[in-house]
# Entry
Amino acid sequence: MPFPKAFSQDVPFERLEFWVDNPRIAKWSIPECDGNTSQLTHKQIKHYLTKDKGKKEYNIVELSKEIHKNTLADRVKVNKTVQGEYIVFEGNRRLAALSLLYESYNFITNNMPEWLREVPCDVYDNLSDDDMFHLVELWHGDLKKKEWSPYSSALMYKTRIDRDGKTPKELSYGHKKTEDKITRQVRTIEMMMAHNVEEEKMFSYFDSYMLLKQDQKNSIKDVFKDKPELFEKFEKNLVITMHSSDKNTSALVIRSTLTAAKSNKFGKKKMREFAEDGDFSRLTDWMHSSGNKDDVLKTLKKITDDFYALKIKDKLKDKQATTNQKNDIKLLLKRIKKQAEQLSNIE
# Structure
C-alpha cells in the first residue's frame, strides 16, 4: 500500500479525540465494551488514562512532567475524518498527558502555552481503519518504536476478526507479523477466554503451549489419539499448572518439557499420567532423568575412549606393565560398570 502523506497543523486541544481501537489499551477497552470498541467514548478513555488504572500503568503523570519541561518533542499523528473529527491514532499516552496539563492550566493559571492550546500534529486526511492499523503497526514494529504487548495485539487482532470480518491474512498484509503468527495469537487468546483466564502475564504460557499444539509434524493431540477424552483433562490440568507460582513450572520449563515429552515414548506416557492426576512433577522428573541419561551416555563414551586409548590388550600382555597402569585399568572398568548400571535405571 502507498505510504499516506501527512501535513503539519496546529489543532486546538479540545478538538483532539482518543482512538477507540488503540491496541495499547486493548486489555482494558475490549473487556470494557464486550469487544465492541466502537461503543467506547472519548470521555471513557480519557477517564481511564487520566483518573483510573491506566494513569499509573502507562506513567501518564511522569510523561506530563516531561512534556511540561521540554514541550511536545514528538508530534502526535491525527486522522482528520470527513465528519471533521481529529482522532489521535498514534500518541494516545501523550494526549492523556496533555489532558492533565490542560486541566492544570485551566484551574491554576490562565498562562497556558500556545503549544498546549493548539497542539502541533501530523494530520492525515480521512484514513480508513486499515490504514491507521497498518501505520501504527509499522511505527511500533519495523520502525522500532516501543511495541505493544503481544497480549494487547492479540486482543485487537481477535476484535478485528470478530467485529470487522477480517482474516489473519488480511491483517498480516504489509506487516512483519505473518498470517500464522496472527492466527496463533488469536487462538491463544481464545484458549485463555475458554478457561476464564484474563491475566496478561499468562499470555506467554498459553502462547508457548499453542506453539506446540500447532506443530503439525508432532502434535500434542497425537499423544492422546487413542484416548481423546484425556486431551481435555490434560489441557485443564495444564492451565492449573500454569497458574501455580512454582519456579519449576515457568513458561520456559513447561514448553521445553512438553517439547521433549511429546517426541519420546516414556515422555508420552508421563503426559497421559499427568492428564489423569495433574501432577506435573511426573514430567519434570522424567525430563531430569532424560537429561541425566544424555550426560551418562556422554560420560560412558568418554570413559570408553579413554579405556581403549590405553591399548588395554597390549598392557595386559605386557609383563613390564606397572602396578599403577594396572590400577588405572581397574579403575576405568569400575567407572564403566557404574555408569552402565546408572544408565539401566533410566527409562
